[in-house]
Amino acid sequence: MAPVHPLWGLCVFVASIMIILSTLDSVTAATYTSRVPRTTRVPRTAPVVYTPSPWTLAHATFYGDESAASTMGGACGYGNIVTNGYGTDTAALSSTIFTDGYACGQCYQIKCVESPWCSKGVATITATNLCPPNWSKDSNAGGWCNPPRTHFDMAKPAFMKIAQWKAGIVPVQYRRVPCTRTGGIRFSFQGNGYWLLTYVMNVGGAGDIGQMWVKGTKTAWISMSHNWGASYQAFATLKGQALSFKITSYTTKQTIMCNNVAPANWNLGLTYQASVNFH
Fold this sequence. Notes:
- There is one protein chain.
- By secondary structure, the protein is an alpha+beta fold.
- It has helices spanning 8-35, 95-98, 156-159, and strands at 56-63, 90-94, 107-112, 123-131, 151-155, 170-177, 186-192, 195-201, 211-216, 222-228, 231-234, 243-248, 255-262, 271-273.
- The N and C termini lie far apart (89 Å).
């Protein structure tokens, strides 16, 4: 048997110490890692802000008188547009841009161009109504809202901001702009105990609604179908439950949550306001 070198024992001892220290480092690192929170705070994403579109050519007429009384109860279902916050700066859109009611609530800037009847004003209007086609007349002679024309049939007070009313019809430039609203989105309830019909008003940002859901305190999220204009419906028994809504913008696709909009004792015929809105 070969003799053991006198330094062999020392080498074994040093190697053992290094293994022990390495193990301790691993345990310490694992312990430190386990103390790092499993969830980290993710910075909030800035809200989607709707920006104006480019200017485009169209034509505009007006309907009704200075009171704008004939503009009430339009195809969007806003009822009294004055008491519901839209004022008299509104317009009916030709079907080309009304888009089966998905344009309800959108905001536009309109200015008269290339007409001796033009004034220098710019009107900012909300889409609240449909200007239906008139197939008995030519598109250039009375059938102003016939497809594929883009046309604005404005409330008379709004029209008078851009042109003299005697003009009847004027060429205009228009662009989509953000809707500036005060307060949160409003929900007006109609229907019955098994059918909730909700009119959505005071929508900011792009101003429009593409999808909508409702949730009671005893239900999961229920998809609501588009009824007409700015109204959405759910065939469900929701009485006696506090209601929340989830809304997706038709234009921006942004979704916001409107939690606890209506209390458990909500009633049909009343309007409830959320604390949030689009921008």
